[in-house]
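job 3f2a | input accepted
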Amino acid sequence: MVKLNVGGRMFRTSESTLRACGDFCARLLFGIGWDPTSLSTLDGEIPVDRDEDGVLFLDRDPDLFDWVLRFARTGEIQKDMPGALKAEFDFLLLSWPPCCQRCGVYFDTARNSDTSCRHHRFPWLEDVEISREDRACCPWPERSEKGCCKNCGTEICGRQVFKSYVRRYICCKGRIDEPGCRRCRHELPPDPDPSLEEPAGEKDVSFPFREEAEEVEAVEVQDPAQKRKEEQERRKAEAKAKREEEEQRRKEVAEKRQAEAQKAREEAEAKRKAQAEEAAKKKEEAEKARAEEAAKRKAEEEKKKQEQEAKRQEEAKKREEAEKARAEEAAKRKAEEEEKKKEAEARGQVHV
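job 3f2a | predicted structure (352 res):
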């Protein structure tokens, strides 16, 4: 689905429909000759911009663009503004069709009259209207005589509509109508009204070709309905083949995108797995480093405790030795005092 902002109106359409809207829209879709990341111009002529939501913006008439999309979908052209629509076709680099794609009626490129034939224009035949039927014969017989057309050399096979002031003839160059196929309306022509037919035995002198009516009807021609049916079947077959081709292309594109997405998912999964393994390895190394650091600190603390214990034991030993030395010194002094006391007592007795 493609989203476009045309003149302030939002349009949503498919890629195939947008590709059928001319080379300009195809270049918009596929980026041919245009950088979508910049606000440059297409081929240096057509400005391309984006709206505030980032949607592609075209400063064109949305009503005309709506008819361009309708033409791409159904082949129908709007009847009331052929000039403006033709200018829009030219702007979008879209070729103006020679005929209506729905009913096959050719467009009058001159647009000088609602009833003028593209190949046989007679200014003095203002009451001539081109028939919507498809017969390979000239539209204008000369008086009541049968023969060949002076313009194209085709055998004359005109038909008259009696009890009417409008003569209908068949163009040998193909069917034709205004831009937009206004008179055709994509419908079969109505059957003639039996009430308008002239009673048997009477003559209508207002039409000089009355005497040739039965001969005209006797000419073998291809059934217009059968030809239209064959043309519709051919177009349906072409459309079906085109749809199948488009479906095959879309299927291939979808399969390619699916394969690319699967590959991207696998690469992302492998990358995530590698990152997880790397993170686990780093975590394990960090845990090992922390364990080694804790063991080292514990060993150092044990060593310090042992050193402190040894130091305390040594200090206690020194205190014990000092206490022992003091006790020995005290005992020695006491012994000396006792000896001196005895000596003094002995000297006293001798003196007495």
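job 3f2a | The CA atoms of residues 71 and 166 lie 32 Å apart.
job 3f2a | closed
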